[in-house]
Amino acid sequence: MATSQQGGGSAARSKTAAKSAPKAPLKAPQKAQRKTRAGGGAKGRSAVTRAAERKEHPVERLAERAKAEDRALLIKLYEDMLLIRRFEEKAGQMYGMGLIGGFCHLYIGQEAVVVGMQSALADASDAVVTSYRDHGHMLATGMEAKGVMAELTGRRGGYSKGKGGSMHMFSRERKFFGGHGIVGAQVPIGTGVAFAMKYLEEPGLCVTYLGDGAVNQGQVYESFNMAALWKIPVIYVIENNKYGMGTATARAAANSQELYHRGQAYGIPGLQVDGMDVLAVRHAGQEVIEQVRAGKGPYIMEMQTYRYRGHSMSDPAKYRSKEEVQRMRSEHDPIDRLRQMLLQEGHADEAALKEIDKRVKEIVTDAAEFAQNSPEPDPSELWTDVYTAAE
Ligand SMILES: Cc1ncc(C[n+]2csc(CCOP(=O)(O)OP(=O)(O)O)c2C)c(N)n1
Ligand SMILES: [Mg+2]
């Protein structure tokens, strides 16, 4: 799978995209090798579309990328992704048992995106904002599994004292700005957070995650315009998981194979990345972050990824075949791929990986216990953390 890039000024050729998209969801666009002209707003940025990198065997390619990294980092990436996977599986189970109510959108399958990006940030001044599919982002920014799980069960120990639930958690300390249930709403918020950093002359940037469905929202383009105009330090990460609820991306988005081109009218450069390869995400992230930190303005990253579970817990996912999901799991799973590579290349042996599995399991078990034992909020809490004082 490839990383392809555009300089911001080329005209999209969309004729074939919608027809071919559903057949090969993770295939790189064929036209990624042509040269492009840098757009007016993207002056000084790379004007050349990088040739799509292709290698037959994904583990080999991971191994190639891993040469640039030390062992501890590779192990950390594995552990961070596994924590999200196990946390989400547990949340799914607890939902099934009636311990979690309301909405709950699982991130299983997409772990490499947020873990790869967070590993590239490595700066406490950077902020993150995302949609309702947010537990993975919270864990990746360093929020405690206990506090997230207790929020899911609506308990006092939760990040929003049990009053927010799955879609509404924040951490000022970790610079995590939510958790937003309105599709696309986090995009102007992330743009505003990054604007404030620039305006106040504070360091940092804001990584703003959005879905392939959200990218068709009008407010996204108002944000793009302002971000490009004022060179705001924001990275828009489109998590293209191939569906917006029950609608395939190709049926909802024009030129759906090239969502990373969506900023070209504003001169915002874009990059398409294999979001099932944590090192591809990390390396692309490092490159983009460097540009944004240098004051060159916003950037769009389109992560080609896949959600294994339904849109939310109440989705029977009848709009796609079991075989499609199974194929993605067996051929592209980001955790299995990294695990295989770690073993093959001798970065870790079975015993070391077992140790990690055990550690992660303990964190999740403790979180689940805490989330069930923490008391429910006192009824008086109904009158706190609201905009107006109760009469
Ligand atoms: C403004 C608005 N319109 C519609 C909805 C209902 N809705 C919730 S999630 C969703 C799909 C969004 O898909 P995508 O952006 O691809 O994110 P994903 O769920 O795949 O992570 C829709 C239409 C909503 N929450 N907000
Ligand atoms: Mg989607």
Automatic annotation (TrEMBL):
Entry-linked CDD domains: TPP_E1_PDC_ADC_BCADC
Reactions catalysed: N(6)-[(R)-lipoyl]-L-lysyl-[protein] + pyruvate + H(+) = N(6)-[(R)-S(8)-acetyldihydrolipoyl]-L-lysyl-[protein] + CO2
Co-factor requirement: thiamine diphosphate
Pfam families (alphabetical): E1_dh (PF00676)
UniProt region (Disordered), positions on chain: 1-63, 368-391
One GO process term, biological-process aspect: pyruvate decarboxylation to acetyl-CoA
Keyword flag Calcium: no
Feature: compositional bias, Basic and acidic residues: 51-63
NCBIfam families for the chain: PDH_E1_alph_y
Protein name in the entry: Pyruvate dehydrogenase E1 component subunit alpha
Organism field: Tistlia consotensis USBA 355
Gene responsible for this protein: pdhA
